[in-house]
Write a structure and sequence with these properties.
By secondary structure, this protein is α+β, with helices and mostly antiparallel strands. The protein has four domains: about 100 residues, Rossmann fold (3-Layer(aba) Sandwich); about 140 residues, 2-Layer Sandwich (D-amino Acid Aminotransferase, Chain A, domain 1), CATH 3.30.470; about 70 residues, Dna Ligase, domain 1; about 90 residues, ATP-grasp fold, B domain (D-amino Acid Aminotransferase, Chain A, domain 1, 2-Layer Sandwich), CATH 3.30.470.20. Strands 13-12-9-10-11-14-18-16 form an eight-stranded antiparallel sheet. The protein has a four-stranded parallel sheet with strand order 3-2-1-4, with helices on both faces. A four-stranded antiparallel sheet has the order 5-8-6-7, with helices on both faces. Helix 2 packs across helix 3 and helix 6 packs across helix 7. The protein is globular and about 60 Å long.
Length: about 425
């Protein structure tokens, strides 16, 4: 019997999870006995877990049963997840097992952007004007009040799915239909928000909250493209970024406004005329390998911090590195069939600053860009670079990206008979 604490990890069971979350599981497994709940038998996770139960985390009864079974086999210290869709179920499971947790009601607020906007306004956190709508007519009326351009988005979703900008009235109906289609898949809400477009650089603040005190450990500078959509193309974390001092107080205020007392949060905002304005708060470790970038740049281990907090421990947030790390997400220029994807062998062999390259798509796969697709259907993979400064890490990422070969055969265009 191990003398390490046992922690339940509730996670998605798919290969995308391996690509973007294996570093999280590896970090937690280095310090805890991991007992896994996922929707399928573990594959790549098996060497990292002590025990597991198969259950659909979105099914409250199945999740509760799996948790109870694991609690009978192990002395559990905590429950955690890094999957956005499971935040509320995991909080409920922790409460059922008598383990540390933020209240499920708080997680529900974090998953509902409309309620979150109201709380930001009530607590004086600088945010965007936002109106919840249920029809094209209501959306048009809200856009007129707010003023174009506006952003339409699902009230309950993630990963920029269903988020689109309408530059004027002629764009509104199509934009509403796009956002509403994604909103229909929401769990906590199926509504659509019409919001003020915040014009400025986008960043996120990676925060750790323990017993009501929030520490902003890093700021992530983001590159967003594919207008009028908001696909995230690149991220940069610099341990010495002076912007952290500017955005940290607003991030902490947003976390406090939502009632988050413990856990890791990914706080997104834009800098409008140099001043931070809130986009949203995700009450979990950021996606797109951002937590890995934080560790490469600062030495701070966000997955371990999240596990420590889930078990009622105080995390160690002491920086042990002072460098920068960047990720460039790989997309095709057009939708179609992927025929070739590779990086120059010389670059892989000779450049120690190229920390990793990952391809999640194979030749023959179909790639679908917005509006028909999203990051889950279009992304080919990613590459990560490091450097002593943010500028150099980013330059290296762009250099490596230029030396990629990604070839796609567009769908056949059939001539009219």
């Amino acid at each position: 019997m191990s003398d390490r604490p046992a922690i339940v990890v509730v996670a998605a069971a798919d290969m995308q999870a391996k690509a973007y979350r294996s570093y999280c599981l590896e970090s937690v497994a280095a310090h805890f006995d991991v007992v896994l709940i996922a929707g399928a038998d573990p594959t790549w996770e098996r060497p990292l877990v002590t025990d597991y139960e198969v259950a659909d985390p979105a099914d409250p009864s199945a999740l509760a049963t799996a948790g109870r079974v694991l609690s009978e086999r192990h002395r559990l210290a905590g429950v955690m997840t890094w999957t956005e869709w499971y935040l509320v179920p995991v909080a409920r499971l922790a409460r059922q097992l008598g383990l540390p947790t933020v209240a499920p009601e708080v997680m529900q607020v974090c998953r509902n952007k409309a309620i979150a906007r109201d709380l930001f306004a009530r607590h004086g956190v600088p945010s965007a004007a936002s109106v919840s709508v249920r029809s094209t007519g209501e959306a048009a009326a809200a856009a007129r009040r707010i003023g174009y351009p506006v952003v339409l988005k699902p009230a309950s979703h993630a990963a920029s799915v269903g988020v689109i900008r309408a530059s004027g009235p002629d764009d509104l109906a199509e934009a509403y239909a796009f956002a509403a289609q994604a909103a229909g898949l929401g769990i906590e809400s199926t509504g659509v928000l019409v919001e003020e477009y915040l014009d400025g650089p986008e960043v996120s603040v990676e925060c750790v909250t323990c017993r009501g005190e929030t520490t902003a450990v890093a700021v992530t500078r983001k590159s967003v493209g594919m207008e009028p959509y908001f696909e995230e193309l690149a991220h940069l974390v610099d341990a010495d970024d002076p912007l952290l001092a500017t955005v940290a107080p607003v991030a902490a205020a947003a976390v406090r406004a939502l009632g988050i007392t413990d856990g890791v949060s990914h706080v997104e905002m834009r800098l409008v005329q140099g001043r931070p304005r809130l986009i949203e708060v995700n009450a979990r470790i950021a996606g797109d390998m951002i937590g890995h970038l934080v560790r490469l740049a600062t030495g701070i281990d966000l997955p371990r911090a999240a596990a420590d907090i889930a078990c009622g421990r105080i995390p160690d947030l002491t920086p042990t590195r002072h460098q920068a790390a960047a990720i460039r997400l790989i997309y095709p220029d057009t939708s179609g069939t992927l025929t070739t994807r590779h990086l120059d062998d010389d670059l892989l062999a000779q450049e120690p600053w190229l920390e990793s390259v990952h391809f999640q798509r194979q030749a023959g796969d179909q790639l679908l860009l917005p509006p028909a697709g999203d990051m889950f259907t279009a992304r080919v993979g990613f590459l990560i670079t490091t450097g002593p400064t943010g500028e150099l890490a980013q330059t290296r990422a762009e250099e490596a990206y230029r030396r990629l070969t990604v070839e796609v055969t567009p769908p056949a265009v059939h001539a009219a008979a």
